[in-house]
Amino acid sequence: MRIKLNRPYRFGRTDRLWRYIDLHQLLYFINRKSIFFAPLSSFDDPLEGISEKHLQLGSLHAIKRYSLANGLQKLQRYIYASCWFLGDTESMAMWETHSNPDSVAIEFKANDLIKLVLTEARKLKSAKFSALYHGKVDYIKMSPVDRKSLKKTNQQVMGFLKDKSYKHEEEFRFIVTRSKNSKQTFRGLDLPVGSLQDLHFDIITHPQMETWKHDNLKTVLGNFSLQRKLRPSDIVKRR
Known about the structure:
Elements: E1 2-5, E2 16-21, H1 23-32, E3 34-39, H2 52-55, H3 60-69, H4 72-76, E4 79-87, H5 92-98, E5 104-109, H6 110-123, E6 129-136, E7 138-140, H7 147-150, E8 161-163, E9 171-178, E10 189-192, E11 201-205, H8 211-222, E12 230-232
Parallel strand pairs: 1-6, 7-8, 11-12
Antiparallel strand pairs: 2-4, 2-5, 3-4, 3-10, 4-9, 5-11, 6-9
């Protein structure tokens, strides 16, 4: 698969990429040993994949009308994303909006995860998918459109623009596009990442997860020799 950079970026040694997930998604990651890319059509935001061309229309009403008329929903089925929160520490806002007390977060050093994904994507030989793009999401005020900020985005592919109301997500995305010749629709894409025991990452339990549940999860992870990757959240909460 071809690798393309959406826009230049640079990370420091303390930058981390986090994925806030439920236990079923964690088990999927462990059993498949892969990172899942979901179609944009499966996301809650109806404007996923919106382009600069859409935003030039100015008003959110016009954008939605144009998007429907020009098949944005169809295009969303051709673009797949793996979305990560970028930050040097946990986000309570992300815990509260994307999880529950039984959930976890997967934490990688930013540069480690990017290197892993790009390396494995280059190995992937499939006529169904054409390229993997990577980069930060730009958050633009869309109602009305902030044209000054829009001029600075210069996006290479759909999927890296979102409304400013989602700014708390601070997303870094890996986006895979389907080949033009591929007519088949897919539930998603699994990108194999090899032996999880050999990867450097942590599994963080929710700040409000009960101790006995944390211990249960540690036992389950022990069946995969991953128990040492589990640790409790650093956030202190009143129970």
